[in-house]
Amino acid sequence: MMRIANAPCSWGVLEFDLEGKAAGYAQVLDEMVASGYEGTELGDWGFMPTDPAQLKAELEARKLSLLGAFVPVLLKDRAAHRPGIETALRTARLLAEVQPGNPWLNQPKPFIILSDDNGKDFRRTRFAGRITPQMGMSESDWQAAAQGATTLARAVLDETGLRTVFHHHCGGFIETPAEIEMLLQRTDPALLGLCLDTGHYRFAGGDPLKALRQYAGRVWHIHFKDCQGEIAARSRAEGWDYFQSVREGVFCELGKGEIDFTALRIQLEMSAYQGWIVVEQYVLPGMGSPLESATRNRDYLRTISLI
């Protein structure tokens, strides 16, 4: 059986300033445990304690593993690289001290989960889920993005021993399957892995199962997120921006959208995937009970023989 985790974003803790107040970290961690999960990601810097001893104590008290941390960087902007690397290193030092990894106990080291800095560009945010090639980056932008991702991943590995995965994301400059392929072709597969987010990949117009087969050796981390097809279609037809699509529930509970998680489970087994599966569903304040959704999501995984 694969190890199943969740993340603070399922409790509405996102990197964007949206309306409503999400739960505090203690409640989020308690409810992760109550709903049956074994691990978590860090969430936004400062959401959980940033003192290593305190954070380690909070996680150990709940028997939760720390799997990684999301670090957004505007990769096409060379001026953003240095502060982005500094943020990644600060985060990686915390992860490495709290969860150093132990191969003897089958505990891998956590990842830096690098992403483009999403939701900042008006057009990319406005047209998330329906990006055309004309909205893409220039050749010089791609050179900068690949260099930034490579330099960051190398710095993190050299200083902390942690690896970096790239998380494609709607609302940013690396969203579509073609854009993901562009970045992966331009970076070292031994240095930069892929965090495949099934919901974002589907909303961006791709087939997550095809992606998992295509990048099997490069998928080091995976987010199980569903995508509600009817809501995605309304988003495209009515011209919603990324945030409106999220508020309307485009990333729904597992099993209530378009994604065939049974097929994904079979492919993960065939490819001998050794990492964690992180369940994610953006339950913003006012959208329902994160605890109840997290419980139903884990129950769904049982119905497809994943746990």
How would you summarize the topology of this molecule?
Blueprint: E1 4-6, H1 25-34, E2 39-40, H2 52-62, E3 65-66, E4 68-73, H3 81-98, E5 111-116, H4 122-126, H5 139-160, E6 163-167, H6 177-185, E7 192-197, H7 198-203, H8 208-214, E8 219-224, H9 229-238, H10 242-247, H11 261-270, E9 277-279, H12 290-303
Parallel strand pairs: 1-9, 2-3, 4-5, 5-6, 6-7, 7-8, 8-9
Helix pairs in contact: 1-12, 2-3, 3-5, 8-11
Would you write up a description of this structure?
With 307 residues, the protein is an alpha/beta fold. It is built from 12 helices and 9 strands. α3 packs parallel to α5. It starts with a strand and ends with a helix. The mean pLDDT is 95.
What's the main sheet like?
7 strands, parallel
Order of helices and strands: EHEHEEHEHHEHEHHEHHHEH
Overall mean pLDDT: 95
What portion of residues belong to β-strands?
5-15%
Using the 3D structure, state the CATH architecture.
Answer: Alpha-Beta Barrel
CATH 4th-level superfamily:
Divalent-metal-dependent TIM barrel enzymes
Determine the N-to-C terminus distance: 5 Å
CATH class: Alpha Beta
How many alpha or pi helices?
A: 12
Stretches where pLDDT is under 50 for at least 5 consecutive residues are none
Bin the helical content.
40-55%
